[in-house]
Amino acid sequence: MSALSPAKIAVGVVVERRKAQSPWIDFTWQPVTALPGMPDALPWTLLAQDGDSTTFYAGAAEIELYRTETTNYRGNLASGAPMLWVALRPTGVEPPYELFAVTADPAEGEAWTEAGTDLVDVVPMPESVHAAIDAFVAEHHVEQPFHKRERDRADPEALARPDPCRRRENERAGKLHHALVAAQARGGARCRRDEGCSRARPDGGKRTSR
Does the residue 132 lie in any domain? Predict the structure, then answer.
């Protein structure tokens, strides 16, 4: 196996068809079991029928294992109930689905659900598949060192550069200050003129009506 090609584990998938309790559809479909290896049977071979439930062998697929995804595989194995994600794709004819893919990567399985058209569900991982994935992780997993993110340091040159917005605000504040000082000066001058007129007038600055 080359550094880029994945390891592969073959599995067969069993699906169950149940009579639907709905007037809009006739049946519901669900993957129920993964069989280790590649069974010698044609896809959609009838396996069993019990009342409203019928099981079929849907076909075989290969689980692809990539060295870059060992963290996801390890998390799946450590969950206590490792699963495989099975995707069935609608055909528009009979049989209504075909086996699309099987994965042991939880992230990949969840991504399959985003399309909204495929039927995606989980099935228990067979013991032999569990052992094979466990051995793959033990051989290829590499712990990624944790790097603490450092805060961005302030750029002295950027701090020294004038901020255009701040400069405009300072200019505006300066103009307002000068306008305020000028207004106060004009008011003071008027007050001084009024006081001078009051002292010059014998009636103390009071106006009298004629």
Answer: yes
Its domain, for residue 171, covers 162-200
Task: Count structural domains, the chain.
Answer: 2
CA distances from 99 to 59, 91, 95, 184 (A): 6, 10, 11, 87
The CA R_g of the chain, rounded to the nearest whole Å, is: 41
Q: How confident is the model at residue 66 (pLDDT cuts 50, 70, 90)?
A: very high
Q: Which residues contact 115 (CB under 8 A, 6 or more apart)?
A: none
End-to-end Cα spacing for the chain = 119
In one-letter notation, the amino acid at residue 142 is: V
**Is residue 148 a contact partner of residue 55, using CB atoms and an 8 Å limit?**
no
Residue 1 within a domain = no
Considering the domain boundaries, does residue 58 fall inside one? yes
Residues 112-132 pLDDT 10s:
999 889 999 999 999 999 999
Q: What pLDDT is recorded for position 12?
A: 97
CA distance 171 to 25: 73
pTM of the shown model: 0.67
At 154-197, the pLDDT tens digits run: 555 555 555 555 455 455 555 454 555 555 555 555 544 554 44
Model pLDDT for residues 127-147, shown as the tens digit of each residue: 999 999 999 999 998 876 655
Here the tokens at position 168 are 């405009």
**Helix 127-140 to helix 70-77 angle, to the nearest 10 degrees?**
140
